[in-house]
Every structure is written in structure tokens, then in C-alpha cells.
Amino acid sequence: MTTFADIAPALERQAIELPSWAFGNSGTRFKVFTTPGTPRTPEEKIADAAKVNEYTALAPTVALHIPWDMVDDFAALSRFAEDHNVKLGTVNSNTFQDDVYKFGSLAHSDPAVRRKAIDHHLKCLEIMTEIGSRDLKIWLADGTNYPGQDDLRARQDHLAESLQEIYSQVSETQRLVLEYKFFEPAFYHTDVPDWGTSFAQVSALGDRAYTCLDTGHHAPGTNIEFIVMQLLRLGKLGSFDFNSRFYADDDLIVGAADPFQLFRIIVEVIRGGGLEVDSPVQFMLDQCHNVEDKIPGQIRSVLNVQEMTARALLVDRPALTAAQEAHDVLGANGILMDAFYTDVRPALASWREERGLPADPMAAYLASGNQSKIAAERVGGTQLSWSA
Ligand code: PSV
Ligand code: MN
Ligand code: MN
Questions:
Q1: What is the per-residue pLDDT across 226-239, written as a single tens digit (0 to 9) for each?
Q2: Is 80 exceeded by the pLDDT of residue 387?
Q3: Which of 32, 76, 115, 369 is in the most buried spot, having the most CB atoms within 10 Å?
Q4: Residue nearest ligand 1's atom 12 by CA
Q5: For ligand 1, mutation pick of 124, 136, 138, 241 (most atoms within 8 Å of CB)
Q6: Which bound ligand lies closest to the C-alpha atom of 245?
């Protein structure tokens, strides 16, 4: 029997990086709704992320997206974060908004466009050096809409060359993480559509290149925990972008659509050593809060990950292994389901109280008055927004 005391050290280590963009207004291609108190500057986004950490102690770092979070003085931004008890984390590049990237970026047929996209990544690496960030995360919108539109093979070769040039500037203490997504915005083919393509590309680069698995980036029905297992087995799972989806890349709160899938994913993370101290796996959220308040949306998200982690840690491994070896099909399944159905919320509430945290971070945040405070303070200026 695994008890809550057994799993406490692993819970203690849990850290989930928050995306700066989750605090901005977002929406769909139909409408971006605004929320009072939405940040107008990168500093305000960081201050909001820091609130999530203050109430949960689960989110010590904030990921930036460049140029959305471009500032003149990154050292000052870093100090601002530290004054709020968080650190700046992963830097996400962005080659999907400028007109020049209409037909692609790192995989584009025109060397001049590839040059611009490579230079953008080199700029991101410079920023990372300045703020002490480890990971450059690359997601590309590159792809085509119609069969025959471009040469699939040539594009893959261009991508490999572009990544090689970027990787040559990744320092010993930095990593390159390549995210995949099966479609959107391109609808016929995407240049990094799946884990296999990302794996092939990063394997060709070297030891400090990894794959990022965004849970919303697979076709419906995909067995995501199998991919988690395989990438961990191959030593190439660099990071997660957690979110949940009902249909496509919905970017909803992680664990909201399918808590059991999140549980199964974390079971494989634990099985593959992804929660160990020296694990290369960075846990991040990649979400949009289109209709709900953003700070509570992020608090709910990190708590969902923590609750599923606790349940996954409670799996009785020795009993499960014994049942598997005996081909006790229903016994093995029952052991997994026992852990999944364990309500860990009361134990987590006491665990938090023992650490000086609110037993119910959601309720404590809502009672704090912060939401009306930021709504009153943040008047004038332009709220930050983007639409997926
Ligand atoms: C793309 O859908 C994605 O998941 C990538 O991670 C981007 O960086 C993020 O969304 C924000 O656009
Ligand atoms: Mn993502
Ligand atoms: Mn996405």
C-alpha cells in the first residue's frame, strides 16, 4: 500500500511553469473577449503569475513568448520577477504572426525568409542568456493547405538546416525543445506534425535538443500516454504543454475535459522517471482563458495537475507489477483504477496547511479581493491579447 506520506517528497518537488500569454485576453477567430484587470504589460502578466505561485507554491517560473513579451531591459524584467518570488523560464519563439511567414518560416523555400526566422531564434537565445533561461521552445506554424503546394521533402531538409544553425548557438546550459502539432493553421500538411518528426529532427541535432509534447496537439483518440512512455524511454521528452481539449487544440484547463487521460499520462511520466530530481522534463501549461478569469483559471489548472500527480503516485507499483506478470488482467486494471478513484483533495488540503499555504487556494484567492483590486488599478493602456 502506498500512503500519502510516501508520496509527499515527490509532491514537494512539483513545479509547473505558467505561460505569460495565459494572463492576456484571448479568444477564437470569432471574438476576443476582454476581462477587467487583464495585464497591459509583461510586468503585469508576471505579477499575475506570481499570484498563482503565492497561493499554490506550484508555479515558480513563467514562460515568455517573444515578441509578445519584448521589453527593452530583460535584466530588469528578471529582477521584477524575482521581486515577486518567481523566475523567468522557457522562451517561446514566434514565427507565426508576421506577413513574411505566410508560407512558412524555418522550412520556407526562400533562404531570405529562413534567415529572418533563424535570426529571430538567435535573438531569443540572447534573451535567454540574459535572463538565465534554459529552454528555447519552438513551435512552427509551417505547413501547406493543398497537395502539391510545396515540396514536402525539401521543406523538411530546410527545417533540418535551420534548426542546425540555431542549435549551434545553444549554449552548454541551454536546450532546444521542438513542439509538434498535427494540423492548424495549416490544414493539408504541417512540417512538424508528430512526435516522430520532432524526434527525428532533434535527434539529428544532439543531446541538448528535445521534444515538447502539447497534450492538445494530437488527433482525437491518440494514445498520448504511449507517446509519453516512448519519448521518456528514448530520453527525448523535454517538456509538456498541458491543456485539455474536447475537439481540436482547444487550450482549455488541463484535466477539465478528460481527467482520466491526465492521470494516465502522469502514470507514464512517473514510470519513466519524469518526476525524479534529475529529470529533463519541464512541466508547463499552454492554455487560454477565453471566458473565465485568468488567475483562478491558472490556479485551477496547477491544482488539477497536482491532484492527478498525487493519484498517479498512489498507484501500488509492486502490486501492479505482480498482477501484470501474472497476466491478471482485471486485477492490474483494478489496481490502477483504485489509485485513479482516490480522492486526494482532503490530504492535499492538510499537506498545504502544514506548509503555510491555504488549504483551498481557489477559495483563498477569490476571498483575497485581488481580482477587484487589479480591475480597479489597471485602467488605461491596452490590455494584452491574442487569438488562437
Ligand atoms: C501552438 O498551438 C501552441 O501550442 C504553441 O505552443 C505556441 O507557442 C502556443 O500555442 C501559443 O501560441
Ligand atoms: Mn503548445
Ligand atoms: Mn497549441
A1: 999 999 999 999 99
A2: no
A3: 32
A4: 388
A5: 241
A6: 3
Average pLDDT over residues 331-337: 98
DSSP string covering 145-166: SSTTSS-HHHHHHHHHHHHHHH
Averaged pLDDT, 211-240: 98
Whether 100 contacts 113, CB under 8 Å: yes
- Ligand 1 atom 8, closest CA: 139
Q: Could you please state the CATH topology (level 3) that the domain comprising 14-310+360-387 is classified under.
A: TIM Barrel (3.20.20)
ipTM topping 0.95: yes
Domain ranges of the chain: 14-310+360-387
Q: Which atom of ligand 1 is nearest to the CA of 21?
A: 11
pTM comes to: 0.97
Please determine, for residue 249, whether its predicted confidence score (pLDDT) is greater than 90: yes
Cell digits of residue 230: 516512448
Task: Tell me the average pLDDT across 21-37.
Answer: 94
Integer Cα distance of 188 and 47 in angstroms: 40
Estimate to the nearest angstrom the gap between the alpha carbon of 33 and the chain centroid.
Answer: 23
Minimal-distance CA residue to ligand 1 atom 5:
139
Residue 250 carries which side chain, given as an amino acid letter? D
